[in-house]
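Subject: Protein record for review, amino acid sequence with backbone structure tokens
Why sent: The fold of this protein is of interest and is recorded here as tokens.
Notation: Tokens come from a learned vocabulary of local backbone shapes, not from coordinates.
Attached in line: The record itself begins immediately under this heading.
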Amino acid sequence: MSLDAFSSFDWRSLNKYASPQAMEDFNVFLEALPQRANKMLLITAGVIWAAAAAMGLFAAVKMQDVSERKMELDEAQALNPNVPLLRNKPVSAKEVARFVDELRETYKGLEIKGNGANIVIMAKATSRFGEFREAVGHVQNGGVGWRVNLDRFCIGLECQQYPLAAAMKINRVSVENATQ
């Protein structure tokens, strides 16, 4: 519909449908409908209204069932414990460097290197095994809250460069609240 046709429409012609006489005419039409309409048409309309009512009742029952299930689910979720999360955070490089300096002073027969949150302990001969074992244990018990992961551990003939070598990564465990 173009704008010209829309603007040229006579809006006053709609007044006859909103008048009190129009409502009275509609009421008369509805009252005379059973006499004028076919019985089959009335039965069809009744069946359609009954089907609509049945579907409405079915939807209401199902909505009640869904709301009950939702309440049960909420109750079940409320019973779940709030378990905290454990996260590994690397220890600061400065703290590891200070610890590596202490290790070098204590275990002079070993080669000890620190790189970030990593510590590497190496020995050139297997005769240093006792000192090597003590150095690895010292790192395992090194700092407060440390969690030491052994990335590489080599003893004996299978080692490529040094007969004793261990590479460890140092983290600090933090406990965080779980989000729900």
User: Anything to note?
Assistant: The chain has a mean pLDDT of 84.
